[in-house]
Amino acid sequence: MTGRKASPLFLERRSYRFRRMMDAVRLLPLLVLAFWMVPLLWPVQDAGDVAAVSMSHAVRYIFGVWLGAIALAFFLWRRTARQIVQEAKS
Amino acid sequence: MVSLNQLIAVCLLYVVGLFIVAFAAERAAIRGRGDWLLRSPLVYTLSLSIYCTGWTFYGAVGYAARSGLEYVTIYLGPSLVMIGWWWLLRRLVRIGRSHRVTSVADLISSRYGKSNLLAILVTVMAVIGVTPYIALQLQSVTLSLSIFAAPAGVANGVLDGRAEPINTAQAAFWIAIGLALFTVLFGTRNLNVNERHHGVVIAIAVEAVVKLLALIAVGVFVVWGLAGGVTEAMTRIDQSAIGTWQVDGGRWAALTFLAAAAFVCLPRMFQVMVVENDEERHLQTASWAFPLYLMMMSLFVVPIAVVGLDLLPAGSNPDLFVLSLPLSQGHNTLAMFAFLGGFSSATSMVIVATLALSTMVSNHIVMPIWLALGQTSVQQSGDVRHVVILSRRVSILFIISLGYFYYRASGGSGALAAIGTISFGGVAQFLPVLLGGIFWRGATRMGALWGLGIGFGLWVFTMLLPSFGPDAVLSAATLEQGLFGIGWLRPQALFGVGGLDPTVHAVVWSLSLNTLAFILVSLFSFPSPVERLQGAQFVNIFDHSSPARGWTASVAASEDLMIMAQRILGAAEAQAFFRAQAQLQEKSEGLPEPTPAFVQALERELAASVGAATAHAMVSQLVGGASVSVQDLLAVADESAQMLEYSSQLEVKSRELSDTAEKLRRANDKLTQLSHQKDSFLSQVSHELRTPMTSIRSFSEILRDAEALSPQEKTRYASIIHSETIRLTRLLDDLLDLSVLENGEVTLNQQRGSLRDVLDLAVTTGQAANIREIKIDRDRDSEDVALETDLDRLSQVFINLITNAQKYCVSDAPCLAVRVHASGSTVAVDFIDNGAGIDADARDLIFEKFTRVAGQGGEGAGLGLAICREIITRLRGEISYLPDSPGTGFRVTLPTPQPGKLQELNRFAASA
After folding, report:
1. Predicted ipTM?
2. Which residue of B22, B347, B471, B612 lies most exposed, with the fewest beta carbons within 10 A?
3. Residue B238: which of A2, A26, A56 has the nearest Cβ?
4. Concatenated DSSP letters for B774-789?
5. Nearest to A74 among B244, B288, B644 (CB)
6. Per-residue pLDDT tens for B184-197?
7. Which residue on chain B is closest to A72 by alpha carbon?
8. Domain spans of chain B?
9. Closest CA to B771 of B795, B805, B796, B739
10. What integer pLDDT is reported at residue B82 of this predicted model?
């Protein structure tokens, strides 16, 4: 028994979609962080026989992840911006 | 070759252009025009770009030339923070807006009980941390100037220091003067920090575009002009000295984290991101737009570094590749454009950083001192605003001159990137206190002081002082053997943990011990009431839209408050504010009552001009003494707890009420149904009584009135009357019997006997009634079942079933089969005749009172089976119609005696 304002347990499709989009907004930085920390696993030059990762490859990887992150953030912005403003007002 | 004078002329033109743009923006804002641009998310995003300073513009290339891809971490951190705006920045912006925060020091002091000590500490830390950064900008501009001024031979940036081509001291001085002028002009126009500095913001936005375009232009020139395309550039990159991945993992992670922390904590970033934020929704636009900007800023860094290393002579300063590459190829216009880009990066950073720091210095150091010097002066008349503005202007000059002197003292040495990292490490010390303040209600002022103090001390010891080199501040002996010769106090190997990269070492130790001290002291100290109030409001910023009350005493007269407000806000603004507040209190004229809510609102209004701590101190001078007591806090908590409690009680009550209503409704339904039953019962009984009564009356009338009746006729009529009275009597007996049974008033006469005896009796009695001959088919062996029940009542039921079969079996040779099935604790007795059976739709009704199956003759009242059912129920058995039997079949199920069941039945009978 709680006296708190209870939100409904199940939501209609539109608000459900919005909630999931907001989940994605929250999780995106963690995903991007994970990708950007992948270089920690790369062998460095003096690691022995393993060939070091070439610079062009590293540049492509880092900037590829960057571009992907920007695209995803842009997509989420398009999907959620209007509703976030509405929720802030209500 | 561009002459230095040409360059200076272009540069001055550019600056004049910026001044004009800033002026135009200010004018447009005053007239209320141009909001579509001034308040657009685009300008917000571009203003964030002051993150990219001269360090970024020139230093990133040098950084890349020295250590490969490591430079990119400086951009990855902020990109992550921006993409994760929902977690942190949204909160910061909301807090900044609702608490009228003026700076990062104001936020921290406001959160920890409006503590001035904390504000001073943060301000001092910020000034010390950012001064090298400002010096760095001056250095980058003079360095880039000198490369243009150098004779052609050394134009490649080989500056050996033997002959300075220009007077760097003078150049830096004039640049500093220009920047100070711009900041004073546009940064101190309005006192209220929360009102945007439109001129500054728009100038920064323009500079952001210029520096991005400049860097991209150089990048495009390098990749397509010098390297010959993307593929060739990539090949060249792989063949160069930095052609392989060589970043140390620890540095990669630590620098990314450091950049992210600094992005949030840097005073200038806080200024543009939180204080100058116009709308929260701009933050989400920036969440993709700003990473995009950063990515474009860093995209061409590696190609420029690689081509620079390739083409320029060894020993060239890689920090200046952006300029020296176009110059060496004879592209003077491009070089000039690049210079303007670098100039933009440096100046915009200095302007905003100075603005932010001067607000902090003026609000948290100058104003408190001024207040302390003139204790009673708050209540005197006269405008204080000029004092505040003057102190802010002086602070601007002070900070820029501090940067200048640092630059002169350090002699412009050191790689740009290293100085930047040190600065980052300093401001990152705010992070634990900042995060703790907005996510953890348990964070206390003492914890914050300890955390900041320890973190700052460690940063100075492990990062700042060693950066001056051995024997500059720390002796070489200290560096080698530790402070006072104690081995585990070595600045770059604290606690004997050596072998770490110095940056990683400093960041890890200072931040972890900072956090540890902050948490531990917070856990064991107790916050003051104001702290707890502020803590609750900061942490629950999205729940508390309205602030809890702060001031309780109403000692302050509204006149005093009015005088003070006029002096800070200005007469017109103060009067408008007081009028609005009076209207809120529904007073048509005069000053508002000094209610807690009003004083709180006034304090917040003042805080926007002079910072929370100062505003608090000023108001408390008038209101007097403690603003909040523990009792008030508890009262606030109590009120909301009571409300909660009350609402939950109401909820329970309403649920109970609806339950009761439901029960009542059901009871009502039942009563209505019973009433209908009673009505139909009465009408049926009347009907049943009426038929024999009618014939009795008519035959008795005949006997009375008819003159000539033969004795036979008399006998016949009398016997009709007699049989009708018998029928009446039987009907009444049955009714009485049923009523007794239904009301549970029957006493059961518990006996022990055999089922066979009961059946014998019933068959004999039934056949004695002699209604009609029926063959009874029994299986006497199976009937040997012991019973312990009211045998008389049971035989009554059996008799009824047998006579029913006699009456209603339509077969030519009527036969009734009696079958007994004993199983476990029950025995079932089936009575099945070979008649036509009962229609399916009539089966449900045969056990109801006055039910007679249609079209089957007979003269019963329809009570027999109802009585049977009542009796069997009393005997704890069951009677049912057997739907699958060949004819009409009834099954009587009875419990067989179990040890100890006797009393139970009695009790059941008694309670029933």
Report:
1. 0.89
2. B471
3. A56
4. -EEEE-TTTT--EEEE
5. B288
6. 877 776 666 556 67
7. B288
8. 4-428, 435-545, 553-626, 632-741, 746-911
9. B805
10. 93
